[in-house]
Design goal:
The chain is 45% helix and 19% strand. The protein contains 6 helices and 5 strands; from the N terminus they run E-H-E-H-E-H-E-H-E-H-H. Strand 1, helix 1 and strand 2 form a beta-alpha-beta unit.
């Protein structure tokens, strides 16, 4: 069984992320969607909430195959996560040319840390390449419509979170 790791913050997961997951499933038997829980970052959603949002988006809203996708959190190097799940590939999503330099450096560092791990870059569909989690959060805060960017359950979680803060 060929497994790939798709790491990210997913704060929250968007249709751009989901495109990358769907494309990954065409290449790999199983994809581990791994939400980082890095203490140095300031997340909008706690990791438990992000995991719930990811699972609701993928399995409840979109009804993707639970047997082919595992959703986890992690606080370690991505290559250590690859070892844990016996994955030899890291999936990274690209939206724009501006993403490439950082992603290229990250892939190089991972390769230096473990020469057996490859990184594959996948792009979301054109209509979803402009979407970022930060834009989604900002549009939500300004009471804009985010239905084209995230699934229904994610819209609800974002609105509920903002109502908590008010």
């Amino acid at each position: 069984m060929k497994t790939a790791i798709y790491p990210g913050t997913f704060d929250p997961i968007t249709y751009g992320h989901i495109d990358v997951i769907k494309k990954s499933l065409k290449i790999f038997d199983r994809v581990v969607v791994a939400a980082t829980d890095n203490i140095n970052k300031n997340y909008f959603f706690a990791v438990e909430d992000r995991l719930s949002i990811i699972k609701n988006s993928l399995f409840k809203d979109l009804r993707l195959n639970k047997n082919k996708i595992k959703v986890v959190s992690f606080k370690t190097l991505t290559i250590n996560l690859c070892n844990k799940y016996k994955a030899s590939v890291i999936i990274r999503g690209l939206r724009a040319v501006s993403d490439f330099e950082y992603e290229f450096q990250l892939a190089g560092m991972n390769k230096k840390l473990n020469n057996n791990i490859e990184t594959i870059f996948l792009m979301s569909e054109v209509e979803n390449q402009i979407i970022s989690s930060n834009f989604v959060k900002e549009i939500t805060k300004l009471k804009g419509n985010i239905n084209k960017f995230v699934t229904k359950s994610t819209v609800k979680m974002l609105k509920d979170k903002l109502n908590e803060e008010i």
